[in-house]
Amino acid sequence: MNPSYFIAWSGFRLMYRFYFRWRVFNPERVPLSGSVILAANHESILDPPLVGSGLTRDINYLARESLFRFPGLGTLLRSWNSVPVDRDGGGAAGLKAILHRLLAGGAIILFPEGTRSRDGKMQKARSGIGLTVIKSDAVVIPVRVFGTYEAYGRHIRIPRPRSVAVKYGEPLRFEALRTEAKACSKPRLKEIYQEVADEIMAAIAKLQPWEDRTQFP
């Protein structure tokens, strides 16, 4: 971690620990090196730093491209390993930047749902994450966050001191579908993208915090 990232990482850990009384489950399931996609459900703007703060390796985050245009802010975001993407996060330039980080052996947080939940319930996965998985060789770690909707969902103006948690699931590998994708038809390729996205979302939904011993960072 560079100094700027470490300071932010430490600050978020303190905030989650003392204000949100966080719990972290199974961070050891995330490889400490190599390309990794952390695929999480999305309830709040608290989610990206929550997922990253539970780990001891630095993570790449997505940020709107427009934010990088502000003097100082762009420099700060880059020091936090932020990847510039368009508003929907599905543009060619954004995908290229994400794959570049993964091919360089980085870890990145992606949200299969594409946007924050409006009611706290998980939404259907979009095919975009399937495309990213197929075009990379990254291992996929399903991640589930709990309580962030109640703490700071779309409907809340000021963050509430509610308990939050993050749980990291068992690694998912898609070698068979990656091999098939190299030679299949375009219609089938689109199906593969959605299959991967749906499998990841199903793995996220199965994660329950009470199955394992709680770990306090």
What do you see in this structure?
Helix content is 38%, strand content 15%. The model has no long low-confidence stretch (mean pLDDT 92). It is built from eight helices and seven strands, in the order αββαβαβαβαβαβαα. The strands form two sheets. The chain has a five-stranded mixed sheet with strand order 1-7-6-2-5, with helices on both faces. The chain has a two-stranded parallel sheet with strand order 3-4. The protein is α/β, with parallel strands linked by helices and 217 residues long. Helix 1 crosses helix 2 and helix 5 crosses helix 8 (186-206). The chain has one domain (3-211): Glycerol-3-phosphate (1)-acyltransferase (3-Layer(aba) Sandwich), CATH 3.40.1130. The longest helix has 21 residues, at 186-206. It starts with a helix and ends in an 11-residue tail after the last helix.
Briefly say what this structure is:
This protein is α/β, with parallel strands linked by helices.
